[in-house]
Specification:
By secondary structure, the chain is mostly helical. The protein has helices spanning about 10-30, 35-45, 50-55, 60-70, 75-95.
Amino acid sequence: MSEKKFNTVLSGFVPALVIPSLTLLGFWIVKSESTLVEFLVKFQQLHMLSKVVSLSTIPNLLLFFLFIWTNRNFSARGVIFATLLLAFLMLILKFI
């Protein structure tokens, strides 16, 4: 059985952190005319920043299943680790 290319925890962890960031940036570009900092501060003041970060992690689900379907289990594990890190961030944002 040959080794799958890009089947490392790091190759799942890095995209699973980058994709939600890009999703959040896309949401900011489409929905806001203010700066990114003002956008994030506004949601923090409304106590909704954790919800916005939560919604931006949804594309990680597609990435996770892509790695599972292509038998890249270590990469899928990296996606889970990154998503857990983002969940911890959401928990912190919720109680600030």
